[in-house]
């Protein structure tokens, strides 16, 4: 049919499909350039203890502004980096950048207990990852306990030997390990126990669901109780309303993160946010501030 219509297979693809494929290739190559030229940046979203209001940590999130294409969201460029084979380089960049930033905060006496970096599950199966993390820590001079790595549950092969070995090696360095977007994948409770996790993050979808009637409340409650009994810190993501915060607090959710507390911030804005946060909120058991 394509041949009849125009004599070439080209006709088989609509112009839209063609442009889309071309855009993807161009965008992926622009991403590679941005990464190489240091034009990606990290923003940091505060995570706070729901009872005391004390800062628990910050999550580093990648941002990409391209002069030609504008702001490209991570939900678009992360999958692209995976496809283009750039995800390991991006992960390494994020680890190095976040650790450097932590060293700067520490040198200036800004009390940020820990920085979390998102890593792709693909990077997690790279046997060189624990060694890389170790050398980045050394290079930056920050204590390993100041770093946490997050892996998304839905992409994590929780029962694979490689995953478990990498998780153990990372924890052995003294670095924290977090399961991100919990509830969006299919990992069983047995798998949850087999990984040496320090943290589990309840996906925003469940936090949103809390305000509606249904089973979500019970699910969130169950995750919180499991976290408690395993000694794993549970962080609720995407908290946007006071009602959500109250419900989570009522369920004894220890840590919350979301636009209600703060949007992700430029590194330079974190100290003033923190100052303002403490000013407007009494912190009974504040972390040691220097
Ligand atoms: P994530 O790790 O689950 O990060 C949380 C996402 O929720 C962030 O989106 C954050 O800006 C957003 N968020 C936080 N609070 C709220 C809220 O109250 N309401 C709403 N609607 N959203 C909220 P972001 O920055 O667009 O990142 C999206 C995803 O892209 C991340 O989800 C993570 O999976 C991935 N990502 C971001 N940066 C990196 C990176 O450096 N490396 C890797 N591998 N993935 C990254
Ligand atoms: Mg995350
Ligand atoms: Mg998440
Ligand atoms: Mg999420």
Automatic annotation (TrEMBL):
UniProt signal peptide: none
Domain EAL residue range list: 24-278
The protein's name in its UniProt record: Putative signalling protein, GGDEF family
Organism: Gluconacetobacter diazotrophicus (strain ATCC 49037 / DSM 5601 / CCUG 37298 / CIP 103539 / LMG 7603 / PAl5)
């Amino acid at each position: 049919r394509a041949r009849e219509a125009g004599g070439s297979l080209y006709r088989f693809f609509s112009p839209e499909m063609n442009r889309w494929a071309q855009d993807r290739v161009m965008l992926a190559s622009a991403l590679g350039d941005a990464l190489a030229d240091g034009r990606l940046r990290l923003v940091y979203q505060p995570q706070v203890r729901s009872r005391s209001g004390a800062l628990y940590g910050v999550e580093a999130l990648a941002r990409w502004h391209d002069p030609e294409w504008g702001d490209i969201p991570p939900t678009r460029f992360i999958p692209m980096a995976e496809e283009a084979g750039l995800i390991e380089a991006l992960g390494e960049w994020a680890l190095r950048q976040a650790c450097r930033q932590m060293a700067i905060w520490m040198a200036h006496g800004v009390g940020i207990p820990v920085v979390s970096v998102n890593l792709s599950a693909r990077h997690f199966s790279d046997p060189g990852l624990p060694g890389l993390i170790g050398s980045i820590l050394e290079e930056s001079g920050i204590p390993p306990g100041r770093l946490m790595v997050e892996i998304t549950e839905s992409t994590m092969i929780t029962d694979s030997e490689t995953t478990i070995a990498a998780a153990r090696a990372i924890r052995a360095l003294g670095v924290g390990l977090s399961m991100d977007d919990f509830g969006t994948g299919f990992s069983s409770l047995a798998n949850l126990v087999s990984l040496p996790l320090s943290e589990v993050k309840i996906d925003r979808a469940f936090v949103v669901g809390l305000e509606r009637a249904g089973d979500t409340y019970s699910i969130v409650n169950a995750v919180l109780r499991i976290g408690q009994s395993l000694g794993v810190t549970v962080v609720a993501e995407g908290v946007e309303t006071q009602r959500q915060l109250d419900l989570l607090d009522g369920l004894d959710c220890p840590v919350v993160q979301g636009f209600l507390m703060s949007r992700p911030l430029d590194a330079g804005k974190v100290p003033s946010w923190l100052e303002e946060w403490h000013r407007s909120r009494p912190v009974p058991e504040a972390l040691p501030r220097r």
